[in-house]
Each structure stands twice: as structure tokens, then as C-alpha cells.
Hints:
By secondary structure, this protein is mainly alpha-helical. Helix content is about 50%, strand content about 5%.
Amino acid sequence: MTEEQLAALLHLKRYEQAPPEYFDRLLNDIHRRQRADVLQLPLWKIAVDRALTFFGVHGSGHISPAGALITAMVIAMAVIELMPHARKIPRKAEVSTPPPELVGGEPRYVIDARPPTYERPWSF
Length: 124
């Protein structure tokens, strides 16, 4: 092929355009091939790869170990908070109620200014 023929061919190709549906079909084909490649891998390799990606081992810097530590701490706190045997339930002997004051031979009960609540306090 001579230089003139090559120049003429390139001149023709410059004005050539793909049909509108070509790029959508190309994107779908690429996604299909990627999924087919992933499905050929063993399940444990997929799980390890996703775990490493989640914790950012692939080079996101020094923040990723801190993020993994914070995530582990939040999960541990949630598990401890939800465990029923971790809550301390006071026994009757440990609960101390002050004896009523005697006024004129009859007990006088003092009502607290704030009523008791059974909700758990917000604390970590």
C-alpha cells in the first residue's frame, strides 16, 4: 500500500461514524465478559478480594487500617450492647431504698422531683 492510498483511506475513515447503538452494545459486552471472568474464579478468592477491597488494602494509604479498626470496634460495641447476659441486673439485696421518714408516727414518703425512667441512658 502506498502513501497516497493510505492517506486516502485515513481521509475516508475520518468521516466514518459508528451506529448509535454500538457503544451501548459494547458496554454490555464488556460487562458480560467481566462477569464471566469473575464467575470462573473460586468462591474463596472472590471473598478475599472483596474483603481486601472493602478494607482498602489496594493502596488507599494509611487511613484504611484505622477505618478497619473503627469498623471492628463499632461492631464489637454493638455485639456487646445486644448481648442479654452482659447487662447487669441488680438483685433485691443490692437495691437500697431509704426508709420512710416518720412524721407523727406515720410514714412520710418523699416523691422525687424527677420521676423514675426505665429507659437506658445514652452512653458508650
